[in-house]
Amino acid sequence: MTATSEDSRQETVHATAVAIAGAGVLIRGASGSGKSDLALRLIDRGAKLISDDQVDLARAGNDLLLSPPPRLAGKLEVRSLGICECDYLSGVTLQMVVDLKSRPDRFPLDRQIMILLGIEVPTCTLDAMESSAAIKAEWALQRLMQGAIES
């Protein structure tokens, strides 16, 4: 991680990121957990790729911006096909983190958040291998955004 001041820190994380309706979603999980596969399904539903496998996070005031490292820009690993080229976005504001695990809690009890570069970010936990995972990610983001509007 590089630090120059509290408001301009950055780091690269092992994750995949997409933009859903312009809102950045960071997908985290162990290798083989389905990050790229979930991103591919979200892209098929209208999301835009930001970055696959590694994502640059940069703090800009109270926002976190998601961008691809230059060598990975526009590249998405699709199992059985290899590395595919596609359009991508850069500098998208992070709105939600999706943590992948094989058996997420059925009813999470507490508001889920994590802290990245000193900023609280809402999270949800999904099983990427469930056929409904892409829809669940979209609905979770939609609920978060509606809550932000109503607050």
Q: Can you put this structure into words, describing what you see?
A:
This protein has 151 residues and is α+β, with helices and mostly antiparallel strands. The chain has a single domain, classed as 3-Layer(aba) Sandwich (Rossmann fold). The protein is 19% helix and 40% strand. It has 2 helices and 11 strands. It has helices at 35-44, 133-150; strands at 10-14, 16-20, 23-28, 48-51, 54-60, 63-67, 75-78, 82-85, 92-100, 113-116, 119-126. The strands form 2 sheets. Strands 1, 2, 3, 4, 5, 6, 9, 10 and 11 form a 9-stranded mixed β-sheet that branches. Helix 1 crosses helix 2. It is globular and about 40 Å long. 32% of the residues are buried.
How would you summarize this macromolecular structure in one to three sentences?
It is built from two helices and eleven strands. The protein has 151 residues and is of the alpha+beta class. Strands 1, 2, 3, 4, 5, 6, 9, 10 and 11 form a nine-stranded mixed β-sheet that branches. Strands 7-8 form a two-stranded antiparallel sheet.
Features:
single chain; 151 residues; alpha+beta; Rossmann fold; nine-stranded mixed beta sheet; two-stranded antiparallel ribbon; 19% helix; globular; disordered N terminus
Q: Look at the structure and give the mean pLDDT.
A: 89
CATH architecture: 3-Layer(aba) Sandwich
Oligomer: single chain
Overall morphology: globular
Give the percentage of residues in beta strands: 35-45%
Query: Which runs of at least 5 residues are low in confidence (pLDDT < 50)?
Result: 1-5
Our measurement of the CA-to-CA distance between the termini, rounded to an integer number of angstroms, reads: 33 Å
> Over all CA atoms, what is the radius of gyration?
15 Å
Count of β-strands: 11
What is the H/E string? EEEHEEEEEEEEH
